[in-house]
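Fold this sequence, please.
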Amino acid sequence: MRALCAGLLLLAGCADLPPPTVSSSHWQGRLAVKVYSKPVQAFSANFELDGNPAKGALVLSSPLGTTLARMQWEAGQEGFATLSAGGEQREFGSLQELALKATGADLPVASLFAWLQGQAEEAPGWQVDLGELAAGRIQAQHREEVQSELKIILER
């Protein structure tokens, strides 16, 4: 999936749109992840995110609307988190494991929900910049071990 998504990085457009309200539990837009491993891994995709760290769903799609991956999670369920991509479905014991497998980066998923609501929640090793949230943009960098970057452009 990462190889398929890598080409999307160049295709994702940018739009200045207002961020969602604090009470929002649905977000959509574009995201890009770059992991400075050997070799460097990068991808971007359109996304729709619903829910919270305990129960939710994330769909990644191409600029043409083709679903690349669907992730779902619910606390207390067997196979807490599932990843459906390429006609296959895999189960994971945690949302963190799912995010790592899907993106190649150790994304701070619980903190991501806070960031989307405008809260600069701390996440170990991550530094978030919410300075452009009013324009619908979030940037975060992971500076420990394998360095990573996350960029989000929100749509309304």
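The first helix runs from residue 2 to 6. Confidence is low (pLDDT under 50) at residues 1-23.
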